[in-house]
Amino acid sequence: MRRLFMIGLATLFFSGCMGDVAAPVEQVPPERQVEAAALQADVLSKVPAFYGDYQPNPHVTDDRRLGKPGEVIRDSNGEAEVLKATGEQKQVSAGPAELTIRESKMLRYEPDPGLADRYRKFTHETEFPIVKLFVEIRNTGDEPIHFDPVAMIVTDQDETLHWDEEIYLEGLGGEIDPGEVKTGNIGFILDDANAQVLTLHTGSADGNHREDGDKVEIKF
Q1: Which of 95, 105, 200 is nearest to 149 (CA)?
Q2: % of the chain at pLDDT higher than 90
Q3: pTM, rounded to two decimals
């Protein structure tokens, strides 16, 4: 009888163990994966004050709270990781147009597959480095002007990026009324993430994309 009792206990024990091993692992659905990844934003910095009431670009991952190399965030537009960043602010004037670069970052960006067509005209890679600047443009004159914040960017790796390759497309160029201020992002896909120095050539205050405009150097 005792022997039967011990056998019964052993059977229950091993049945319980097998039940634990065989228990299915619950898979987190994609929408919860994005939500879980976004939770790490709790440990990131606050959005810098100079962003003001800027609304995130609907086609690019919101990186406003990323400021240090290695920081990563993911949202419905994809995943962005800081490769390099500088909070040093730069200012340059082109006639009455005053351009202030509030921050500069180099990001590793992996767009959501649903946005692939948007970037295919620039690259066929599924992830790539981008250089991204948050800028402020002010008309300090008494007349409306036409100004584009960038005619081209040249890197110290001999890479040249022209105004028509800009990916954010936030309408920062065009006419600016006297005293008007525009803020937003400009960004370009890079071939070489080893760049340490960027030279930005502004457009002119008459709206031309000339390549001999005023220059500002950004060092990471």
Answers
A1: 200
A2: 68
A3: 0.78
